[in-house]
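User: Run a structure prediction on this.
Assistant: Running it now.
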Amino acid sequence: MTVVLIVNFIVSAALILGGAMMRKCADNPEDRSIGFHTARAMAGQEQWHFANKKCGRLWLILGSVFLALTLADIMAVIPNVSESFGKATQLLLLIMQVSGMFIAVAFTEWQLRKKFGNTST
């Protein structure tokens, strides 16, 4: 259970840090080394800015929610249940984190397509 718990903290922190970096890098048109790198997002400065602000915000929110859920799981659930149930809740949380990360990327791509059309060349 400890390993999955550590991984949950790392994934939550990565979402928060990644979201903050995307939002910061969205305003820097010269440096595209960090950010939302898809063909549609890289098609122009406006798309780059939109994608990084949108996905960065989603990742910040998701990372914060998942970090809070991880802490709540540690404090409320794990001490009062069996070890196997604690492992199951931590694994479920990890699956939700990874799924949320990919859903945020897919949602951002959908928003790019909706706002800018098929500009990915």
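The chain has one domain: 2-28+37-116.
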